[in-house]
Amino acid sequence: MFLEICTACVLLYSLWSLLTLERNYKRALSMGIPLVRVPIDPLNIPWQVIEPHLWRIADFLHLPLPSYTRYMRRGWYFADKAKAHLEFGPIYALVTPREILIQLCDSEAIYEVFTRRGDFVRPARNYSEW
Predict the structure, then answer these.
(1) Are 40 and 14 in contact (CB under 8 A)?
(2) 44 vs 124, higher pLDDT
């Protein structure tokens, strides 16, 4: 009985993640920039627990993994350096079940984003006052 409940929970969570990933992908299509689907958000708590163990095994076995898996590692941008921008251009988005992460590498565009605060809405939960 317990095994069936756990299996059902895992399947329901996987289905929910797939549906929210596709919903976010359809929302991101309107931006007209290159998109990368990342099926597991790096900030997903269960993923953070098992991630180090899975990567250790994958690295040891030299498993051939799809290209999007590099974005599922914590701190992927340190190892990636400018590889993604050379591949996709100065702007692209990572689409996860949780959110859409825009990666921007153009100093003039970054200046516009920070000087026109009212035109670029940021989530308030990340910018709470102390």
Answers:
(1) no
(2) 44
